């Protein structure tokens, strides 16, 4: 169950990071509200997952999901640039998350 909570928390991190970009510095109310609500949900689920998972594992997976997810949203939905170096960086984050998961008890 903790892993499911962590996955949802990571997905909410993608939501709040993307909504924050769309809020234009918190000048757009709807995107600003989505940012704040998703952020609270993400932190609450991360906290719940940390009851059962080690700090380093939970935090690394949460930030990794958010980082790679935000990268994908930026490229796919916001037209941000893509390069071999950026793809390699995202792949290394995913590899690190996989290794962290495999090394967790």
From TrEMBL:
GO biological process: xenobiotic detoxification by transmembrane export across the plasma membrane
Cell membrane listed as a keyword: yes
Membrane topology classification: Multi-pass membrane protein
GO CC annotations, alphabetized: plasma membrane
One GO molecular-function entry: transmembrane transporter activity
Transmembrane segments annotated in the record for this chain: 27-47, 59-78, 84-102
Key words of the record: Cell membrane, Membrane, Transmembrane, Transmembrane helix, Transport
Subcellular location: Cell membrane
InterPro entries on file: EmrE-like, Small_drug/metabolite_transptr, Small_multidrug_res
Main location: membrane
Gene3D superfamilies in the cross-refs: 1.10.3730.20
Family according to the record: Belongs to the drug/metabolite transporter (DMT) superfamily. Small multidrug resistance (SMR) (TC 2.A.7.1) family. Gdx/SugE subfamily.
UniProt name for this protein: Guanidinium exporter
Organism: Sphingomonas turrisvirgatae
